[in-house]
């Protein structure tokens, strides 16, 4: 198969979808890999390393899209990429369709095959291609939150872990999944007092067993959240409903309950955010203030640590890329149920329920689409 790796052009996105090591593995399987010049530069990988691994370098993004049967990326295509996408071309990347109606309609119109990292799902409901970036984002949420709690950043002027004789900051984490657990552990490690909320009692029991002593667990409901935000210095939104919009757990009126300088970090911003006043920001302009509350809502947080993120992501995606390249997307999805549920939009049809529900679009059964490919 001919595989294309374009340079990411989203604001301050320094990750790349494939490392030189990944290129070498694909070349061993006799696949052709085209990489755009300087695609890996932001992650610390030179063109020479890609060439040494067997990649063919192309100077422009237009050439990459023009030649590739499968495009592998990190972030969803942005508007200037839409015209480059060909009918029947396979795109394997993070899409988060439920948070962007224009992107959804653009991919439908282009007739592309859109396989989303974030909805590839194992039988135990875990999300193997979201996990590595969730681990990075969960840890970063505390790192960034601690920074924006500083007074020059308009925060409360509180050191997360405190010092002897001074209480540590209180961190509230909404959601006990991968992001929430990583955030709670990171905050606890820095000495903060942490409250970790989730709607699943079995999950809370598990977290209570494995978390440090300075992490308390609590059932997530509106009453408990309203009470907790009054005392929190840093609030992390870490709620995910795979492929669908995140629910608004922190509402606009709750900001009035918070102390001036409280910091909100919404890791769920890719899926619409679980904080009502959240809107996507960039690493270039990461925060804004509403009602004296600092909002940090960067949509590609792991892009700030691109080396770590790129290696972690390729470790997870490469086995799936290999299956798609070896078998073609139709057969790979028939053979692997994990990949099958990753299909979101196929040749003009929405095949993922969360995306159809988000934008009130007709839903086509994924089996029907795969069957159509057999018959054709």
Attribute tags:
8-stranded mixed beta sheet; 376 residues; alpha/beta; nucleotide-binding; oxidoreductase; AlaDH/PNT_NAD(H)-bd; 7-stranded mixed beta sheet; Rossmann fold; AlaDH/PNT_N; NAD
Spell out the blueprint of helices and strands.
Layout: E1 2-5, H1 20-28, E2 32-36, H2 47-53, E3 56-58, H3 61-67, E4 70-72, E5 90-93, H4 101-110, E6 113-116, H5 131-148, E7 170-174, H6 178-189, E8 193-198, H7 201-210, E9 215-219, H8 222-229, E10 234-237, E11 263-266, E12 287-290, E13 293-296, H9 306-327, H10 329-335, H11 337-340, E14 343-346, E15 349-350, H12 353-359, H13 366-375
Helix pairs in contact: 1-2, 5-6, 9-10
Offer a quick outline of the entry.
By secondary structure, this protein is of the alpha/beta class.
What does this entry look like structurally?
Keywords: NAD, Nucleotide-binding, Oxidoreductase. It catalyses: L-alanine + NAD(+) + H2O = pyruvate + NH4(+) + NADH + H(+). It comes from Fibrella aquatilis. The protein folds into 2 domains: about 1-120 and about 305-375, NAD(P)-binding Rossmann-like Domain (Rossmann fold, 3-Layer(aba) Sandwich); about 130-300, Rossmann fold (3-Layer(aba) Sandwich). It has helices spanning about 20-30, 45-55, 60-65, 100-110, 130-150, 180-190, 200-210, 220-230, 305-325, 330-335, 335-340, 355-360, 365-375, and strands at about 1-5, 30-35, 55-60, 70, 90-95, 115, 170-175, 195-200, 215-220, 235, 265, 285-290, 295, 345, 350. Helix 1 runs parallel beside helix 2, helix 5 (about 130-150) crosses helix 6 (about 180-190) and helix 9 packs across helix 10 (about 330-335). Strand 14 and strand 15 form a beta hairpin. The radius of gyration is 21 Å and the shape is globular. The chain is α/β, with parallel strands linked by helices.
